[in-house]
Amino acid sequence: MANLNVVSGYADAPSTPQVRRIGSADLKRALAQGLEDFWAMPTHVVFIGLIYPVVGLLLGRLLLDNDALPLIFPLISGFALLGPVAGVGLYELSRRRELGMDTRWRHAFEVVRAPGFLGILALGAILALMFLCWLVISEGLYEWLFGSRSPQTLASLVQESLSTRHGWALIILGNFVGFLFAASAFSISVVSFQMMLDRGVGPAVAVATSLKAVAANPGPMALWAIFIAAALVIGFIPLFFGMAIVIPVLAHASWHLYRRVVA
Predict the structure, then answer these.
(1) Angle, vertex CA 121, rays to CA 119 and CA 125, nearest 5
(2) Helices 218-236 & 24-40, crossing angle to 10 degrees?
(3) Most CB atoms closer than 10 Å: which of 22, 50, 98, 132?
(4) Where do transmembrane segments lie in this chain (predicted)?
């Protein structure tokens, strides 16, 4: 602990590593390996994955009880910003399976012993701050266009959004701002948490490597981001319960993508 720096990692940690150029075949292989991990560890992976639909339902109920209906979509879409943090325990399971180690579900929580755990917390806090900023901006956009009044029901919110000029302005501006948040979060975290878990580097090196990986592979990374977004939409549709499968598969696949991208 005396040699650990939350920002830069261990004093003897390597500098920013090289990144490889990848293609669509690498994405398919990473996804296939993620599915293999999921089927090889289904019981505890689903157990961990069930946390996310439960949290989603609780947050949704909280919004309904507090007349915060305009924040439902920003909350659901912005929840994806925290995906890399939520997947850390699953990265650990993939790492252990890769090494032929025991992969019982309790090992997902052993990330707290990882050399880069403080860095993981630091970068996780940054993503959480981005999530909160997204919610604040979303609320501000709604109040700017519709005033301080809140819709009475979810149906009236949908109708108001789709049938008025202010509603379409909210959809366009909200999605544009959301895209900026999502693209930023993806760029700084696509391989960051995996690196800190695997190599003990700090957020500075991990984020620099993540940005370098995106810059070196703009097409494949954009395709991967689109796939993640589509998968999350599918997972959200059945009252969040699809996330119990989508989140673990994406997390395991992201670990294998990291292995293919970072030399």
Answers:
(1) 115
(2) 40
(3) 22
(4) 38-59, 71-93, 114-137, 168-193, 222-250
